[in-house]
């Protein structure tokens, strides 16, 4: 098992290097560079930039180097933990990313947890009460959840929350708590803000996974070993939760690998609407202004999350189902 | 001890034995589907004496598996009438299973403990996620003992009993690591782990190759002699019946059409269906080029009801005006107290 994990980690490192190289190449493909954006901004502010200053900036940022030189400058320092400086704000990339990445990952993990906690029991109920009224209602709500776009749901919830409960809109904190130290009141305020984000993030995946859970469990319930379990005299609850669910849960476990980065990327639009300080909007900005180091670092981080998520999913699956364990 | 069951209605053809562990009376089972009602069992009656093996034979869809599942109350159909008296022979207590709540504590106490069942598909009848030992222990922990170490010991013992080499290792194996024959042995071990009064074996060897089949049948016969469990052996294979059973019930379209001892069925079959069934078995020593007899026609559509004798459309000896109009009663064959047949030719 340890051998398996070690092999996977080595593979991951190679994959990350390839991803970062290709990603870096694609990011610099469009004409122009971060410097053009900067110069334009300075000119718009009315400054008269002498040619010598522009030339100095060009050398400093290294924008005239071929991209593989830029790539090497960035990656060699990144390996030592220095992701470089963001061209746009002169902050270090690490400074700009870490806070937002933390919020993104914890939001996504919470949404993932929410997805599982809701879709497993509802899927099981739906399968064991097939073609009953509750099942029809669940199915209807599922299709609603699948077909409403996240940004629309975000808007609806925002308006509802502010009209009905007089809740302040957007952000993670109300202004009076933003810089305050953590307290019970701040926590409550935070929860009041964050639930909309979690629900909006989770609703599509939840609807989908509930459906998958229902269909899979229905298949498993027709298996012979379920009959065997019943013939042993087990309670129906034991038959369902011990014998059936464990065999039906594979797609949910596998979804862990893809869901984590999908949630992080998928939240971009929602984060913009809800003005959440997450990684998505930052990534979008970095791409648009060709802030190479920033964009490249975010790309590598997201890829790493995808790979880690997949590794965790594989390990979980091996734990759930002995048939996929490696000898 | 036998008084407990005498209250049940018994028809004049009931082959009553003091020793019956199961007495099924006029069992009716329906399935209500979107396409209509399927009458799976239309008044099935039989009994299984203590320590005997009853073979239940018939074509696919004749209701033999549903009869077994009804005794376990595991059928998805609805039992509409009749009774299933079960007598636990240690206590002598008789219970009508049809009156028990389907998943209630009493029914669950009987399942796996007093009556257990093994199925046709050994490849899929064990849960792939748990070790064989774990699945056997589950039944023992449920019915016999609370002690996990003791349950483990018993599981290993029973695995040894069903002829597993290295039972300790098998107990820690997952089903996918075992062959079909081994899995069926494990299933038998699980079914016998609580020394049930009755074992329902639903085509336990159909999915196995012939060599393995012979081994499994030997094993079942040996264990049956040793433990004294009665067996309801469901099969469509007359060869297996000859090897395993003491008595035979032949089913056709949800009814038992002939019941007899093993010798009477093979040497003196009465019902035209039984006769055709026996003739359609290929034999060694029959002249080459001679055509193997088959039963003409097919089993009628399950949603329809056939008037008269259900076999009359395919029967070579059908009497027009009688067989297609009147349902024959089950009667004793002249001069026998063990051989019954449901056919107008013998009334």
How would the blueprint of this fold be written?
The complex is a heterodimer of chains A (327) and B (347).
Chain A: H1 2-27, H2 34-44, H3 51-61, H4 67-78, H5 93-128, H6 133-147, H7 150-164, H8 184-221, H9 224-231, H10 236-248, H11 250-274, H12 279-288, H13 292-320
Helix pairs in contact in A: 1-4, 1-13, 5-6, 5-8, 5-11, 6-8, 7-8, 7-11, 8-10, 8-11, 9-10, 11-12, 11-13, 12-13
Chain B: H1 3-6, E1 20-33, E2 36-49, E3 53-57, H2 64-72, E4 78-88, E5 93-96, H3 105-110, E6 115-118, H4 132-143, H5 148-161, H6 167-171, H7 180-192, E7 198-202, H8 210-227, E8 230-235, H9 238-244, E9 247-252, E10 255-261, H10 262-267, H11 272-279, E11 331-332, E12 340-341
Q: What does this entry look like structurally?
A:
- The complex is a heterodimer of chains A (327) and B (347).
- Chain A has 327 residues and is mainly α.
- Chain A has two domains: 2-78, no CATH class; 100-324, Orthogonal Bundle (MetI-like fold).
- Helices cover 76% and strands 0% of the residues of chain A.
- Chain A has helices at residues 2-27, 34-44, 51-61, 67-78, 93-128, 133-147, 150-164, 184-221, 224-231, 236-248, 250-274, 279-288, 292-320.
- In chain A, α8 (184-221) packs antiparallel against α11 (250-274).
- The radius of gyration of chain A is 25 Å and the shape is globular.
- Chain A starts with a helix and ends in a 7-residue tail after the last helix.
- Chain B is an alpha/beta fold and 347 residues long.
- Chain B folds into two domains: 1-108 and 203-214 and 229-283, P-loop containing nucleotide triphosphate hydrolases (Rossmann fold), CATH 3.40.50; 115-195, no CATH class.
- Chain B contains eleven helices and twelve strands.
- Chain B has helices at residues 3-6, 64-72, 105-110, 132-143, 148-161, 167-171, 180-192, 210-227, 238-244, 262-267, 272-279, and strands at 20-33, 36-49, 53-57, 78-88, 93-96, 115-118, 198-202, 230-235, 247-252, 255-261, 331-332, 340-341.
- In chain B, a hairpin with a 4-residue loop joins β4 (78-88) and β5.
- The chains are: A mainly alpha (327), B alpha/beta (347).
- The A-B interface holds A 223-225, 227-236, 243, 246-247, 320-323 and B 72, 74, 103, 108-113, 116-117, 119-121, 124-129, 131, 135, 138-139, 142-143, 174, 176, 187, 190.
């Amino acid at each position: 098992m340890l051998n398996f994990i070690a092999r996977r980690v080595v593979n991951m490192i190679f994959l990350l290097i390839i991803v970062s190289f290709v990603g870096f190449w694609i990011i610099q493909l469009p004409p122009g560079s971060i410097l053009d954006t900067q110069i334009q901004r300075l000119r718009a502010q009315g400054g008269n930039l002498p040619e010598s200053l522009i030339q100095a900036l060009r050398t400093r940022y290294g924008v005239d180097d071929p991209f593989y030189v830029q790539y090497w400058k960035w990656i060699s320092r990144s390996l030592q933990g220095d992701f470089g400086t963001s061209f746009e704000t002169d902050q270090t990339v690490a400074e700009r990313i870490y806070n937002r990445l933390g919020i993104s990952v914890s939001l996504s993990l919470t949404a993932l947890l929410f997805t599982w906690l809701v879709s497993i029991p509802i899927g099981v109920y739906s399968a064991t009460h097939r073609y009953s009224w509750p099942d029809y209602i669940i199915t209807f709500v599922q299709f609603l959840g699948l077909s409403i776009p996240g940004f629309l749901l975000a808007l609806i919830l925002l308006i509802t929350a502010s009209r009905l409960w007089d809740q302040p809109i957007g952000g993670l904190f109300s202004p009076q708590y933003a810089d305050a130290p953590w307290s019970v009141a701040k926590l409550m305020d935070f929860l009041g803000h964050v639930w909309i984000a979690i629900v909006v993030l989770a609703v599509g995946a939840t609807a989908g996974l509930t459906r998958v859970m229902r269909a899979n469990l229905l298949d498993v319930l027709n298996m012979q070993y379920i009959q065997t379990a019943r013939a042993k005299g087990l309670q129906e609850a034991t038959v369902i939760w011990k014998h059936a669910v464990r065999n039906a849960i594979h797609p949910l476990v596998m979804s862990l690998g893809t869901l984590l980065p999908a949630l992080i990327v998928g939240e971009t639009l929602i984060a913009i609407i809800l003005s959440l300080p997450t990684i998505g909007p930052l990534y979008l900005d970095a791409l648009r202004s060709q802030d190479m180091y920033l964009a490249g670092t975010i790309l590598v981080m997201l890829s790493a999350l995808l790979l880690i998520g997949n590794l965790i999913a594989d390990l979980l699956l091996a734990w759930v189902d002995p048939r996929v364990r490696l000898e | 001890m036998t008084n407990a069951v005498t209250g049940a209605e018994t028809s004049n053809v009931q082959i009553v034995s003091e020793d019956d562990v199961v007495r099924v009376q006029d069992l009716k089972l329906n399935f209500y589907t979107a396409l209509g009602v399927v009458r799976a069992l239309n008044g099935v009656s039989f009994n299984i004496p203590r320590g005997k093996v009853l073979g239940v034979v018939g074509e696919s869809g004749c209701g033999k598996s549903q009869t077994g599942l009804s005794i376990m109350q595991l059928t998805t159909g609805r039992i509409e009438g009749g009774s299933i008296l079960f007598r636990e022979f240690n206590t002598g207590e008789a219970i009508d299973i049809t009156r028990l709540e389907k998943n209630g504590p009493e029914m669950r106490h009987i399942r796996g403990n007093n009556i257990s069942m093994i199925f046709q598909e050994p490849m899929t009848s064990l849960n792939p996620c748990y070790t064989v030992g774990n699945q056997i222990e589950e039944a023992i922990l449920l019915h016999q003992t609370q002690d996990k170490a003791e349950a483990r010991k018993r599981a290993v013992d029973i695995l040894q009993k069903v002829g597993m080499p290295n039972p300790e290792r098998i107990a820690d194996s997952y089903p996918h690591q075992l062959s079909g024959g081994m899995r069926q042995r494990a299933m038998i071990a699980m079914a016998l782990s609580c020394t049930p009064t009755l074992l329902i074996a639903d085509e336990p060897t159909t999915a196995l190759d012939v060599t393995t089949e012979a081994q499994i049948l030997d094993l079942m016969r040996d264990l049956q002699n040793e433990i004294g469990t009665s067996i309801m052996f469901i099969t469509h294979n007359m060869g297996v019946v000859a090897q395993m059973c003491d008595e035979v019930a032949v089913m056709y379209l949800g009814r038992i059409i002939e019941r007899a001892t093993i010798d009477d069925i093979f040497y003196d079959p009465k019902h035209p269906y039984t006769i055709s069934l026996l003739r359609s078995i290929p034999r060694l020593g029959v002249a080459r080029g001679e055509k193997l007899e088959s039963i003409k026609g097919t089993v009628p559509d399950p949603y329809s009801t056939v008037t008269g004798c259900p076999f009359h459309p395919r029967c070579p000896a059908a009497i027009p005006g009688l067989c297609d109009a009147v349902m024959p009663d089950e009667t004793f064959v002249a001069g026998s107290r063990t051989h019954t047949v449901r056919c107008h030719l013998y009334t």
